[in-house]
Specification:
Layout: H1 3-31, E1 34-37, H2 38-45, E2 66-72, E3 78-80, E4 85-91, E5 96-102, E6 114-121, E7 127-134
Parallel strand pairs: 1-2, 5-7
Antiparallel strand pairs: 2-4, 2-6, 3-4, 4-5, 6-7
Length: 151
């Protein structure tokens, strides 16, 4: 191989490798989601110093996908069937966040249940969820018979 042909091959390999790396990075980046508890999220949005700034807590805005974990506040669930809209409060230990979701609620979604919502922060501080993930109730619970529980 002469020098110019070898140079062209090396340049082609570098360009193809860089393009492949860029596409891989963009694909992985699109699936990244920061995970917060409600209290961590409220602290980060309010501008308080985040405990772990490496998680990107200081950069919460509407462009980032976020997963938010908490408990659906009892009595806060409002269904609007016509708009296919679900509004509720997601509570942490010390604070809560208003959440809006468009679509059908998961089967075991209810007040007092633990959920993880995935979405973005909208104007006005409302968290607009694209997904609601609920915990599955265990179908395999131990049954006590009358003799074993002392009755």
């Amino acid at each position: 191989m002469d020098g110019t042909r070898l140079t062209k091959v090396i340049i082609a390999v570098v360009v193809i490798g860089a393009a492949g790396g860029y596409l891989l990075h963009q694909t992985i980046k699109s699936s990244w989601a920061y995970y917060y508890s409600v209290d961590e999220f409220v602290k980060a949005v309010s501008g308080a110093a985040p405990e772990n700034s490496a998680r990107g807590a200081s950069k919460i805005d509407g462009s980032r996908i976020i997963r938010l974990a908490g408990i659906v506040k009892d009595g806060s669930v409002v269904h609007n069937v016509e708009k296919m809209q679900l509004d509720f409060e997601l509570a942490g230990r010390n604070s809560s966040v208003p959440v809006r979701f468009y679509g059908a609620a998961p089967k075991n979604f209810a007040g007092g249940k633990e959920v993880v919502v995935e979405g973005r922060v909208a104007d006005g501080g409302v968290f607009v969820a694209d997904k609601i993930l609920t915990r599955c109730e265990s179908k395999y619970k131990v049954k006590l018979d009358a003799k074993s529980n002392g009755s």
